Amino acid sequence: MSEKILVVEDEPTLLETLIYNIKREGYQVEGVSDGSAAIKVARQLRPDLIVLDIMLPGMDGMEITRILRQEMSVPILMLTARDGEIDRVLGLEIGADDYLTKPFSMRELQARVKALLRRVRIESEKTERPPDLKAGQLQFDNLTINPTRLEVTLDNTVLALKPKEYELLMYLARHRGQVVSRDQILERVWGWDFGGGSRTVDVHVRWLREKIEADPANPTRIITVRGVGYRFEG
Ligand code: CA
User: Do residues 53 and 64 make contact, with C-beta atoms less than 8 angstroms apart?
Assistant: First the structure.
């Protein structure tokens, strides 16, 4: 089964070009040109990846991302027109997994699509465990990470974590007690081809602390190691 990709772009010629070039790589492609169609098709299709233009009439790409992120953990490759949007697009506020600034070459697009899908595949292989639920489970007092279900619970309540928050926590937890640098985290959680800076890591750590720390202002689980990075204490 080839992977399914949803392309959202309101500019007809570009949409056609995108569809043509992604199909050529052997993927199944659906193309839509506005936000409500994007949401509808994403819900039906359950795509493996969404290529999403930011500037769309009506609902924009950021709004679409916000809605879909609550329902599915699909990776999103954002198409931006301006460099100034990149900071907002990359995880900080919006949570896109990667981006391309227009104009871009179709070769570049194909490379990014391939890289993103590969990253997701590696992640899911890493987290696929034998049926014994307990086996891969990580337990830290009242905090439990269940890689089989991609689920984190605190006092037996399931936390609503964004995909990157989950991956970050998983990475930190697997390196419990070790100092990991922001660069290491960026490379392992976001991938070597991620274009954003280390601020992305800090923002996600802050979000995670708000969810897993008893007092996020005085964290005892994710410790800041000044000038270096972070250490997970459990
Ligand atoms: Ca557009």
Answer: no
pTM, entire model? 0.56
CA 69 – ligand 1 centroid, Å: 21
Residue 94's pLDDT band, with cuts at 50, 70 and 90, is low
Ligand 1 being an ion, which residues bring their Cβ within 5 A of it? 10, 53, 55
Distance 21 CA to ligand 1 centre (A): 18
Domains of the chain, first to last:
4-127 (3.40.50.2300), 138-232 (1.10.10.10)
pLDDT at 174: 84
| Alpha carbon distance 112, 211 (integer Å) | 31
